[in-house]
Design a protein that fits this description.
heterodimer; A: 257 residues; alpha/beta; TIM Barrel; 6-stranded parallel beta sheet; 3-stranded parallel beta sheet; globular; B: 393 residues; Rossmann fold; 2 domains; 4-stranded parallel beta sheet; 16 helices; 18% strand; binds pyridoxal-5'-phosphate
């Protein structure tokens, strides 16, 4: 049972998770941002490790990834920064990124470094279930890391059941099939999709992500699931020069409107 | 040893479908149906009729007399340059548009480098009355202007890819993002033997007509369907995959794949993937790609837009690893000179991509009795401005 499982077991209110790209806007801002987010009231964090070709991402996260790479961010640098993670941050932390940097770093080495840093889980959107099961699952398990898969409105029910079986953190529900940064558009069809998932009574809790940008969309998500993940909307505010100072107001605006 | 894909979508260590969940339903639909679709008698009949009456197949196998004399071997050119739209790319787009139609898709997207695949896609979309959106790197839009005009004339929308090196890799990223955002009505016609399973296998099957014809044409002309050497250039690897397909199990045929070395393999401006790359995942499959220690994809370079790609298809990675084919490279200069040579000796202006395969002839030694087939994957009309500028013509 890691911090993430504990959070879902104990928290009654809607859960807010924030994504940001490590190394953006400045190489060494990772822990400053993480700490500010915890103080401001974020419930858990997804720290993105950048990749040159992020096909699942829209312009905002693409740009932050490119800037982070230009600033010199690599997995080596990130794990070095994360040595102090648990001195400064107590909420659950997941790492999120694409599979190729993990492969080059070495899967076993990656899991060991993540566990050592006090990371609770990993989200790798382009790691297929089959390969995860065959090659990665034991390694994740051994190091106590939760693995999170995405689900879209087009994901078939049998596949959602399989994902639920392979997951031990939460299920990442996409509001629609989209790259990151599109605004959530809650139509009758998305509502019926959210209810369909809720009625499946999965063993894992669910969170809604992609397109959550304000209080209204956060509340909507929390009606159907345990909460929501904000990515692009947060990464956008990191573009300002006094970005650390803006974090509390941003979190308040999502949680309270 | 099998050189083809297994039931899990792998060629040895390479292949698979490394895609985010948003792409899964579309890719899975294709995976579960493509073999059934392309084996239907109705499909085969329509595919063959279009290749014959619309594309102009079979493409000739031409004994290049003066080139043969220069190198001291019987050199045959497989004339994919004579296909409608001027390259091998149309073999694949005809196949895929028929698949898309049978899947009930109304909207087609594609990526393109040299613009040949974009043109071939715009062409089949016009033929079938389907909406067509082509992603093309900003740099390539500039260096392949005639092809941009052709796509527009046939009704396609050309969207510039402005990220990264603004070439083929980035156009592919944009096409994948489009597919993620349009999960229901759209088919993505990938232009090479890259991408998640089943694309590499499906595209290779459609391109395999190249070697199927070559074998009977060789038999007619030389009495044997087995050549000593088969050469093709490799960007993602589709003309090479089609040119090699029916020779993979022919022990006599030595297969040679020519990558683009740009300004020199180790110049830092190159696209010689097997020489510079390592195993990893790009655009949905495990293969060999040019990357940093940290797994970031390295921007490739080649004077030829169609070869300016940092990876190769998974089947090529496998053929390279098990040494069934030899992977070599030719520089910009070598290729440009080979292109000019073919123009002067045979009256054929090749695409700069194809000229890379021709350039390798210079590095080979022959005893005089060899039969060599070179895939002339496309014609050079689109490259005239580049040739003019390079040679100051
Ligand atoms: C004439 C020609 N040859 C070769 C290529 C390279 O592609 P592939 O390696 O898939 O054959 C291209 C790509 O645009 C092309 O236009």
């Amino acid at each position: 049972m890691n911090r993430l499982n504990q959070l879902f077991d104990t928290k009654k209110e809607p859960i807010l998770s924030i994504y940001f790209t490590a190394g953006y806007p400045e190489l060494n801002a990772t822990l400053d941002i993480a700490e500010a987010l915890e103080k401001a009231g974020a419930d858990f964090l997804e720290i993105g490790f950048p990749y040159s070709d992020p096909v699942a991402d829209g312009p905002v996260i693409q740009e932050s990834s490119q800037r982070a790479l230009n600033n010199g961010m690599t997995l080596n640098v990130l794990f070095d920064q994360l040595k102090d993670l648990r001195k400064r941050v107590s909420i659950p932390v997941l790492l999120m990124g694409y599979v190729n940097p993990v492969l080059q770093y070495g899967v076993e080495r990656f899991c060991a470094a993540a566990a050592e840093a006090g990371v609770d889980g990993v989200i790798v959107p382009d790691l297929p279930m089959y390969e995860y099961e065959e090659l990665y699952r034991d390694c994740f398990g051994k190091h106590g890391l939760s693995n999170v898969f995405l689900v879209t409105p087009q994901t078939a029910e049998a596949r959602i059941r399989k994902i639920d079986e392979l997951t031990n953190g939460f299920i990442y529900l996409l509001s629609s099939s989209a790259t990151t940064g599109k605004n959530l558009d809650v139509s009758v069809t998305t509502e019926s999709y959210f209810s369909r998932i809720r009625d499946m009574e999965l063993k894992n809790p669910a969170m809604i992500g992609f397109g959550i940008s304000d209080h209204r969309s956060f509340q909507k998500a929390a009606q159907y699931t345990r909460g929501a993940i904000v990515g692009s909307a947060f990464v956008k505010i990191l573009g300002a020069s006094d970005y650390l100072a803006n974090i509390p107001a941003f979190i308040r605006s999502i949680k309270e409107g | 040893m099998s050189y083809h894909v297994n039931e899990k979508g792998y060629y040895g260590d390479f292949g698979g479908a490394y895609i985010p969940e948003m792409l899964y339903p579309n890719v899975e639909e294709l995976r579960s149906k493509y073999l059934e679709i392309i084996r239907e008698p109705g499909f085969t009949a329509e595919f063959e009729a279009l290749l014959r009456d619309y594309v102009g197949r079979p493409s000739p196998l031409f004994l290049a007399g003066r080139l043969s004399e220069k190198y001291g071997a019987a050199i045959y050119l497989k004339r994919e340059d004579l296909n409608h739209t001027g390259a091998h790319k149309i073999n694949n787009t005809i196949g895929q548009i028929l698949v898309a139609e049978r899947l009930g898709k109304k909207r087609i997207i594609a990526e393109t480098g040299a613009g040949q695949h974009g043109v071939a896609t715009a062409t089949v979309c016009a033929l079938k009355g389907l909406e067509c959106v082509v992603y093309m790197g900003e740099v390539d839009i500039e260096r392949q202007a005639p092809n941009v005009a052709r796509m527009k004339m046939m009704g396609a929308t050309v969207i510039p890819a402005t990220s990264g090196s603004k070439t083929l890799k980035d156009a592919t990223n944009e096409a994948m993002r489009d597919w993620i955002n349009n999960p229901e009505n759209t088919h993505y016609i990938i232009g090479s033997v890259v991408g998640p399973h089943p694309y590499p296998d499906m595209v290779a099957r459609f391109q395999s007509v190249i070697s199927e014809e070559t074998r009977w044409q060789l038999k007619e002309k030389t009495g044997s369907e087995s050549p000593d050497y088969v050469l093709a250039c490799v960007g993602g690897g589709s003309n090479a995959a089609g040119m090699f397909y029916h020779f993979l199990d022919d022990p006599k045929a030595k297969l040679v794949a020519v990558e683009a070395a740009g300004k020199g393999v180790h110049s830092g401006e190159s696209a010689a993937t097997t020489a510079l790359g390592k195993e990893g995942v790009l655009h949905g499959s495990r293969s060999i790609l040019m990357q940093t220690e940290d797994g970031q994809v390295v921007e490739p370079y080649s004077i030829s837009a169609g070869l300016d790609y940092p990876g190769i298809g998974p089947q090529h990675a496998h053929l390279f690893k098990v040494k069934r084919a030899e992977y070599v490279s030719a520089t910009d200069d070598d290729a440009m000179r080979a292109g000019l040579l073919l123009a002067r000796l045979e009256g054929i202006i090749p695409a700069i991509e194809s000229a890379h395969a021709l350039a390798h002839l210079d590095r080979m030694t022959f005893t005089g009795n060899e039969t060599v087939v070179v895939c002339l994957s496309g014609r050079g009309d689109k490259d005239l401005a580049t040739y003019m500028k390079f040679f100051g013509l």
